[in-house]
Amino acid sequence: MSHRRSSAASTLSDGRFASKERSEGKLDVRPLCFCGISARARFSKTSLNPGRRFWSCSQYSAATRDKACSFFEWIDPPSQQQEDDETNSVLCQLKTMKKKLRIMEERQNKTDELFLKQSYMEEKLKLYEEKLKSTEKMLKAMDEKLKRLKLVMLGSWVLFCSCIYLCLSGVERESM
Ligand SMILES: [Zn+2]
Predict the structure, then answer these.
(1) How far apart are CA 133 and CA 139, in angstroms?
(2) For residue 59, is it within any domain?
(3) How far is CA 22 from CA 25, 51, 75, in A?
(4) Closest CA to 83 of 12, 6, 160
(5) What total number of domains does the chain contain?
(6) Eight-state DSSP code of residue 115
(7) Is residue 105 in some structural domain?
(8) Would 148 be classed as within a structural domain?
(9) Which helix (H) or strand (E) holds 29?
């Protein structure tokens, strides 16, 4: 186990050395930054790419930050660890995106459900409104009938009263 580890470490350092040797040639051919000046090689100090070299604007420094352009280009290829880290971070991002997608799909489903419920309720409401309208019509018709009935009753009551009056006045005339 320890033997394997040491051999892996030596290959890694050999690989690094080889890549440095290879890119050492690259250092002679400096690319031009966006300002049109030869770029300057720097070492990355980030935890993701420690010691990895990159080209950047030669005008870049804490004092002249405003003058520098945003030119950036890696000199060293990523190490196996860096590649693994990158793959892992991409996988992690993919997982997060899948989770977000699932949540969004669930939300969409809920929205669909709500929409269906709402349109069902709207249909029901329409039916109730129609029923209400027909009930109102029926009530109106009954009201009319009731009015007519009252008139008929009033008429018959007047007729009845005048009949009684006529009868009584007839009886009075006979008795005189
Ligand atoms: Zn520049």
Answers:
(1) 10
(2) yes
(3) 6, 16, 10
(4) 12
(5) 1
(6) H
(7) no
(8) no
(9) none
Sign of the Cα pseudo-torsion (150, 156, 160, 165, in order)? positive
Which residues crowd ion ligand 1, with CB under 5 Å? 33, 35, 57, 69
Question: Cα(36) to centroid of ligand 1, in Å?
Answer: 7
If you search the block for the tokens 């033997």, which residue do you land on?
3
Ligand 1 centroid to 52 CA: how many Å? Answer: 20
| C-alpha span between 96 and 123 (Å, rounded) | 40
* Residue 67 is assigned to a structural domain of this protein: yes
The 8-class DSSP code of residue 35 comes to: T
* Cα(68)–Cα(38) distance, integer angstroms: 12
In this predicted model, what pLDDT tens digit does every residue of 66-88 receive, in sequence order? 788 999 999 988 888 878 888 88
Ligand 1 centroid to residue 56 C-alpha, Å: 7
Question: What is the dihedral sign for C-alpha 45, 50, 53, 56?
Answer: negative
- pLDDT one-digit tens code per residue, 102-139: 999 999 999 999 999 999 999 999 999 999 999 999 99
Beta strands in the chain (DSSP E): 40-43, 53-56, 72-74
Alpha carbon of 18 to ligand 1 centroid (Å)? 29
Q: Ligand 1 centre from 26 Cα, in Å?
A: 19
Geometric angle at alpha carbon 42, from 40 and 44, rounded to 5°: 150
